Backbone:
């Protein structure tokens, strides 16, 4: 009848009954398992490279349209009433946006929280819609 009378309680301190060397080894092991810690810059760089690969051809086309106003004739007379200056300005805006896009995506992935990434995505979506509206007004 000398029992303690019930389940044994766990100690309240964080070691959980482990020695300090065991706790340090466990902490180092847990840190080693987290492959994303401290790598957000690399993920941002990878996302930027991926986006740049996706926009390489449109970027080249936009730059060629911006630097050669005579390409206005390629749109089969739909741009006859548009001034060459407006045509070149439109394509420079598109070119600048396409050049900035990989950097914006990389920065957003590397530095911003989920909410901030959503806000940046919304701003980019508004910009794309504005470009489409401008294109519809001046091209078609």
Residues:
């Amino acid at each position: 009848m000398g029992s303690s009378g019930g389940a044994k309680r766990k100690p309240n301190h964080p070691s959980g009954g482990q020695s300090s060397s065991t706790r340090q080894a466990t902490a180092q092991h847990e840190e080693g398992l987290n492959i994303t810690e401290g790598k957000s810059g690399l993920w941002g760089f990878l996302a930027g490279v991926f986006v740049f690969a996706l926009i390489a051809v449109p970027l080249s086309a936009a730059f060629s349209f911006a630097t050669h106003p005579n390409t206005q004739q390629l749109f089969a007379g739909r741009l006859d009433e548009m001034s060459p200056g407006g045509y070149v300005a439109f394509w420079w805006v598109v070119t600048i946006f396409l050049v900035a896009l990989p950097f914006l995506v990389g920065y957003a992935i590397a530095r911003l929280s989920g909410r901030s990434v959503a806000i940046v995505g919304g701003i980019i979506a508004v910009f794309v819609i504005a470009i489409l509206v401008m294109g519809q007004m001046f091209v078609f």
In short: Helices lie at 20-33, 40-67, 84-111, 114-139.
